[in-house]
Amino acid sequence: DGMVVSEKVKSNDIDVKIPKSELEGEEKGAEEEHPRESDSTILDVSSDYPRDKHISIQRHLADLEKLADLREDEKKPCPLCPEEKFKACYSHKLHRHLQNLHWKVSVEFEGYRMCICHLSCRPVKPNLVGDQTLSKMGAHYHCIICSATIVRRTDMIGHINRHVNKGETESRFITVRAPKSSYKVVKESATDVQVLPNHSTPQKTDSYFNPKMKLNRQLIFCALAVLAGERKPIECLDAFGATGIMGLQWAKHLRSSVKVTINDCNENSVTMIKENCHLNKMKVKLNIREKDNDETVGNGEENSDTIEVTKMDANVVMHLRSFDFIHLDPFGSSVNYLDSAFRNVRNLGIVSVTSTDISSLYAKAQHVALRHYGCNIVRTEYYKELAARTVIAAVTRAAARCNKGIEVLLAVALEHFVLVVVRVLRGPTPADDSAKKIRYLIHCQWCEERVFQKEGNMVEENPYQQLPCDCYGSMPGKTAVLLGPLWSGALFNTGFLRRMLLEAVQYGLDEAQSLLKTLICEAECTTPKHFSTHSPGDENKQEECGVYIRTPNTSAESYLVHGKRKSEEVLRSTAKRQRPEHSAEHPPFYYNIHRHSIKGMNMPKLNKFLNYLSEAGYRVSRTHFDPMGVRTNAPLVQFKTVLMKYSTPTYVGAQAEGPVHLPGGIHVGEEVPAATVIKVQEGELAQDDKAGVATAVFTQSYPTHCAAD
C-alpha cells in the first residue's frame, strides 16, 4: 500500500474520524515508502488515475484560505492541523497561522506549493505516556508526484529532485518519462543522442552518458574496426547500452560490416535507445525470441542500417547468443559478467572490458579489490599498471574456465577507467598457456623495486633473494609484500595497435591517435623520435595470435571467414606459430622519475634522461600510465645511477651546469656501494640510506664536513 492518505483528507471534512486499522495500514505504507525511493521505476498501485492532489498542495495562499472558509464572525479550524494542535479561531488569526506556519515553509514545484501538514496522515509512534499520542502528530509534506510523506523539508526537496532526475514529473505512482523539451541532444563522432538533464549522474538516471569517456569509446571503435577488416559481417554486442551511443557509432560508421545489438535491462533506457536510433535514421529490429535466434543470425538479407535492441540482463543475452565482439561497460566492476561473456564468444573474437571501480583497482579500497578480483594490492608508484594487470588476471581466469585462452591486445588505465581488450583463443592449450602467466609479484616497500615471482610450486627458502635490491639486509624487519595474483605477460600487441592507428586516422579520431602513438612506442619500448607508422618487419608477414593478418600482399587463403577458418590444415599450421617471442615483449612496470629524484639536485629533462638510459644500453620508453613514468628493463639501482650522473646541483654558483662526474672506480651500470661518498668541488654528495635509496645531498656551506640526513 504505497499511498498514505487518510479518509479525513479525502473528504476535506475535519470531523471525520479515522479507524484504527486504517491508521496502522497507513503507518506501514509510510515506512515502506523510503526504500522505494531508490528504485528506478515506481509501480502503479492505483486503478483510478489521475488522482486528486492532497489539500496541502495548492497554487496560491488564497486557495488555502478558501479551504478554511474564512468568515469574520465565525471561528474556523485550520484545514491542515488537528483541533488538538490548533483550536478554531477567528479569520485574522487563522490567516496569520496559514501564512506563517504552512505557506512560508512550503516546497515549490512547477507552480504548486507543498505546504507542511499536521494531520494524522503520518502518525508518530506513541510515547511512554499513551495520552500524549494524539497531541504529537507528525508534521510532514505530501509529495505531489507519488504522494509519499516526508518529514523534513530538505528531504522533501531531495525527494522531488530524484523524481525530476528520473523523468517522473507529472503523475502519482506512475513512471512518466520526461517531456521532449527537457531532453538534451549530445553529438559525438557524427552521432546524436538524447539524454536527460542528469545524464552524467550514474545510478540516478536511465540515460547515463559520460562525456569524459569519449576516448574510451574511440579506442573500442578502433578495435572493432580492425576486427571488421578481418571478417565480415561480425556480430557485436554493447551489453550495457544506456543511451546507445556506442552501438550507434558502430552501425553508423561501419555499416554493413557489423550487425549491432544494443542491450539494456532498464525499460526507459531501451525506449531512449530506440528513439536515438530513429534520431540517427537507423531502423530498430524488434526483440527476438529465443527460438528464432538461429534463423535471424544466419539471415543475410537484413538492412545494414538496422540495429537490434534487446531488453534483457546482460548475462542472459550473452548466454543465449554467440557474438564476435562483446563490450562490457557496467557501472563499477565487470567481474559478474566475465563468465557469460566468454561462454559463447566465437573463436578469435574480441572481448573489451571497461572497469570504472577505480577506488578498488587503484588500491584506495584494498578490501574491495580482494573481494571482487581475489587480488591483494597496495598503493605503489605503478598503481595504474597494477590495476590493468589485476583486471587481465580476472579476465584470464574467466576465459580459462570456458577452455579459452586470451592474448592481450590493449590495456589502458587512465583517470576514470581501466580498459582491457583481449582476443579469444579457443582450446585447452591456449587456456593453459594464459593461466601460466598469472603470477605473484614481490614488491619492496622501501625502494619500490619489484619482480615477478619465479615459476614453479617449490617453496623458496629466502624469497627476498629474488629482489634486485638489498633493502632486506640493510633495513630492519620485513621489507617486501606479496601482491597478486597478477597478469605477468605483455599488455600490448604492436601489430594490432598499428592497425588501430590506421583506423583512427581514417575516421578522424584525433584523441585516440595521440594515445595510440604513445601505446605503440610503449609496446615497442622505443622513444617517440623513433616512431614510425610502418611495421619494422615485412608487412605481408604480420602475425598475431598465430593468425596471419590481412595485408595487401597476403594471400586469400589466410583470411578469416565468419567464425571459422577455411580449412583445418591452416588452423593446425598457424597453431604452431601461436607462441609470441618473449624477447620482444616490453619490460613490465615503470619507474616514476620524481619518486626517485635526488635531494638537492635538479633532474635532467625526461626526454634527455630517456636518451641517457638508452645510451647506457637499456630499453626505454615513456608510458601512458604516468606522464613522468619511465618504462625500462634497467634495475632500479642502475636507474638511480644514471639519474645521479646527469643531475645538477640546485644551488646557483656552486657548480657549473653539466653532469656529475663519478669517481674513477664507479661507472654507469655498476651498483653503487651504500657507503660511497662522492666529493663534488667544494661540496660533498652523501648517500641517504633512508628507504634503501642512494640519494645525493649537496652541501655548499660546509666544504669539509659531510652532510648527514
From TrEMBL:
<keyword id="KW-0808">Transferase</keyword>
<protein>
    <recommendedName>
        <fullName>tRNA (guanine(27)-N(2))-dimethyltransferase</fullName>
    </recommendedName>
</protein>
<keyword id="KW-0539">Nucleus</keyword>
<dbReference type="GO" id="GO:0016423">
    <property type="term" value="F:tRNA (guanine) methyltransferase activity"/>
</dbReference>
<comment type="similarity">
    <text>Belongs to the class I-like SAM-binding methyltransferase superfamily. Trm1 family.</text>
</comment>
<dbReference type="InterPro" id="IPR002905">
    <property type="entry name" value="Trm1"/>
</dbReference>
<keyword id="KW-0479">Metal-binding</keyword>
<keyword id="KW-0489">Methyltransferase</keyword>
<feature type="domain" description="C2H2-type">
    <location>
        <begin position="143"/>
        <end position="163"/>
    </location>
</feature>
<keyword id="KW-0819">tRNA processing</keyword>
<keyword id="KW-0832">Ubl conjugation</keyword>
<dbReference type="GO" id="GO:0008270">
    <property type="term" value="F:zinc ion binding"/>
</dbReference>
<keyword id="KW-0863">Zinc-finger</keyword>
<feature type="region of interest" description="Disordered">
    <location>
        <begin position="1"/>
        <end position="46"/>
    </location>
</feature>
<dbReference type="InterPro" id="IPR042296">
    <property type="entry name" value="tRNA_met_Trm1_C"/>
</dbReference>
<dbReference type="GO" id="GO:0005730">
    <property type="term" value="C:nucleolus"/>
</dbReference>
<keyword id="KW-0820">tRNA-binding</keyword>
<keyword id="KW-0862">Zinc</keyword>
<keyword id="KW-0694">RNA-binding</keyword>
<dbReference type="GO" id="GO:0002940">
    <property type="term" value="P:tRNA N2-guanine methylation"/>
</dbReference>
<dbReference type="InterPro" id="IPR013087">
    <property type="entry name" value="Znf_C2H2_type"/>
</dbReference>
<keyword id="KW-1017">Isopeptide bond</keyword>
<feature type="compositionally biased region" description="Basic and acidic residues">
    <location>
        <begin position="7"/>
        <end position="39"/>
    </location>
</feature>
<dbReference type="GO" id="GO:0000049">
    <property type="term" value="F:tRNA binding"/>
</dbReference>
<keyword id="KW-0597">Phosphoprotein</keyword>
<dbReference type="Pfam" id="PF02005">
    <property type="entry name" value="TRM"/>
</dbReference>
<keyword id="KW-0949">S-adenosyl-L-methionine</keyword>
<dbReference type="InterPro" id="IPR029063">
    <property type="entry name" value="SAM-dependent_MTases_sf"/>
</dbReference>
